[in-house]
Amino acid sequence: xxxxxxxxxxxxxxxxxxxxxxxxxxxxxxxxxxxxxxxxxxxxxxxxxxxxxxxxxxxxxxxxxxxxxxxxxxxxxxxxxxxxxxxxxxxxxxxxxxxxxxxxxxxxxxxxxxxxxxxxxxxxxxxxxxxxxxxxxxxxxxxxxxxxxxxxxxxxxxxxxxxxxxxxxxxxxxxxxxxxxxxxxxxxxxxxxxxxxxxxxxxxxxxxxxxxxxxxxxxxxxx
Length: 223
What we know:
The protein is mostly helical. It has helices at about 5-65, 70-80, 85-105, 105-120, 125-140, 145-155, 165-175, 180-190, 200-210, 215-220.
């Protein structure tokens, strides 16, 4: 390489550096903003997560303090003063409050609270069905057998989160109506269900035995 070529290369490199320097001076702030946004976004996410965690802990502390009240009416009053920041948290609070009201002989007020949950279409099905199930439990003596059967049947549909518990209640309604064989058949179906819990399975077996039915499911299915 000649001295002239070397000199040209050096000048070209200097020009390239000068242009880069000018571009950084002119547009470098964009990179700074991008970096700031990235760092700021990460910091905000951490702050938001910390805020959410703190709110959940504060809610938990308030609920624990309210549940520590020995008298059920005071427990219900304490729960009513707590505010949740999410629909799910509010639903859980109302269920706890409904439980306290029911234990203090205020079943009607408890059912009203539970109805607010079960009618809220924005809540997940598990919240709404749980509220309905609890409300039906409080209305065993006030609703007709037909109404109870209709509502439990809705909760017992395939895929419903509380379907097996609802089937158990339907079996008890069958028994109250003198439909013993229908109750036993329903209880056997519960026992054989792949999703049944051990507690529910044990309860179903005990009721079948009390009704004089057989626990030999294989023999029943063959017959």
